Amino acid sequence: MAPSNNGFLLLDAGLNLIASNHPALQILSFSCEVNRIKQPKVSLAERVRTTLLDHKHQGGTAFVKDFMSGKRRYICKSFQVACNDGNDSLQPAFAVLLERDAASSHSALTEISEQFGLTQRERETVEFLLQGLTSKEIAIRMRISANTVEAFIRLVMVKMNVSTRSGIVGKFAGSGAGCSPVNFQPVEANSRREYLEA
Fold first, then answer.
1. Secondary structure of residue 155 in the 3-state scheme
2. Does residue 112 register a pLDDT over 50?
3. pLDDT over 50 at 101, yes or no
């Protein structure tokens, strides 16, 4: 199965691009051939301002919740983070995750569930787990006890031959059904900032 093509962007407070992964460039430059873009940093910064910035929002920087790239719908999740700029001062920055709409990854989730023989309730548990919910939150959504959720998670771990929750997420991430690990390159090679790669 193909890996997930979720995009990741790291922006400074002025929405200038600090770092990104290749899928982000592909998503935001859909109609262009990525290899022909001469200044990807400039192109991405422009697309962030025109496509991802919510111009209707009053007061502070806000991003759209979803957008279309070609015929694909993407969910835009933004997080305000603090980045060390090397001068021992913290400046606000934004991490932006561009994920394919859950409906588009539904078939991949179904396929891997069939591969490991997950029951409907186990699959439902994993679906909520992939969304980052805790056992208690999953229990509320499924209207079962947290202990039952833990039992489902243990059964899934046995079926998938993993020993942790992150092992379950890793199996789905590698399949394209969930979020893939984010690998990105700093845009400016001589930058004094340091970034952690997930």
1. helix
2. yes
3. yes
